[in-house]
Fold this sequence. Notes:
Blueprint: E1 22-24, E2 31-32, H1 52-62, H2 68-73, H3 76-95, H4 104-121, H5 133-145, H6 151-155, H7 157-165, H8 173-199, H9 212-228, H10 240-271, H11 274-285, H12 303-307, H13 310-322, E3 330-333, E4 339-341, E5 344-347, E6 352-355, H14 357-360, H15 382-392, H16 406-415
Antiparallel strand pairs: 1-4, 2-3, 3-6, 4-5
Helix pairs in contact: 3-4, 4-10, 5-8, 8-10, 10-13
This protein binds protoporphyrin IX containing FE.
Protoporphyrin IX containing FE is lined by residues 32, 46-47, 59, 116, 250-251, 254-255, 258-259, 262, 324-326, 330, 395-397, 401, 403-405, 408-409.
Amino acid sequence: MAAYEPYMGEASISLTGTPISLTITGKDPIRKIFLQKLINCRSPNMFSTTLSKPHSARKRMISNIYSKSYLHSSPQLPAISQTLIYDRLLPIIQSAGKSIVLDVLELNFAVTMDFINAYLFGLPNGSNFLQEEEIRRHWLSLYQSRKYYTFWPQELPNLTAWLAKMGILVVPKWVDSANEEIEAWCLEMCDAAEISIATSSADEQNPESQSVVYKQLKNALANDISKSAPTVPPPPIPNQHLLLASEMLDHLAAGHETSGITLTYLTHELSQRPHLQAQLRSELLTLLPPLLYPSDTQMLPSQKDLDALPLLHAILMETLRLHPALPGGQPRITPRTPTTLGKFTDIPGGVRVNAQAYSLHRNADVFPEPEVWRPERWLEGGKEGGDAKNRWFWAFGSGGRRCVGSNFAMHGTSNLPFYLRT
Length: 422
Ligand code: HEM
């Protein structure tokens, strides 16, 4: 559904040209709803913050290091990609097909996890799921096994807590233990990043060692507190350690799973189309330096050049369109005054409404034969057709709550068709 957040606070809004028109009569915005406040490490984070002001203040602290321009010029990302792709991923792929069968989903989770963790904490402080098979299997099974129980704390947190007090555990105890283990693992990486920052062991000679996101948020929180309380020395930030860990855990969870799922669909779709693989391979061959394995230099082409490849971009967009990694409802709540959403008028305040990429991406007027994976559609239709498709594309959401990691996701996933190394 269309972008709500940028229009917040206006008296009467009618969005024309956007997929679904939205009218709000009154001053209140449509707000995000998320009931579970202390989502990770008993501490809130950006995603769980429903109020707009603190949410956007937090987002401003980190959005710069996830921006396209930052990622394009970042010294850290090429260094991270080089190690992950040449030293860890390609040897695994090389070995497959001889005697080893690969679980592609698991491998993609591993690569996306290592990638995001390296950017959050620095490569030496992050995970090495690609090479540490047992650890990754244990972690992924911990992470996935809890999912059957997320409904209760997310949708009915008060009832869940009350039932627990009455001795009725709707979420079994082992789920708490799994959560604690995952949190402890994240806290360990935060501690390692702290040590790197304190000892300056991650210097400019080793850009891959820098804990880009952790350091950025730590400094921004420190600046924030010193601005609001100008006492000397400034008071300690309450639970800063847990707050940082909660945010990092959210990014690594949001980042690895969505990107891993996307890559797996991409691999699946490409695997059925040898002709398209050949076309993509030719496009990749236009890059300089070319991706060769084994390689003496182990240099990768620039992200800017990768982003400019039309077929690769079309393949990513079409994969995210047909198989959005977050296909289901993004919950929002209507304001106190009556709201119109599409053909539904006079929706009272406090009603939960959902927007979902799955349905928007299946509008046959914009995406003919919507169930067919056809990347070429993104190369057709000129500017006007392209604009309509982009307007209906909602894999990363929109407005103030739009995915903060969307550029990072496009970066990570665009590196991976290197499976088709040349
Ligand atoms: C293909 C990959 C990805 C997809 C499809 C995706 C999708 C989304 C969507 C739809 C939302 C909006 C949720 C809402 O409206 O409530 C979102 C939010 C978010 N995503 Fe992603 N995401 C991806 C990758 C990443 C990565 C790599 C990161 C790592 C930083 C990330 C971090 C986040 C965070 C922190 C939020 C919350 C933003 C906020 O509260 O303002 N995502 N993502």
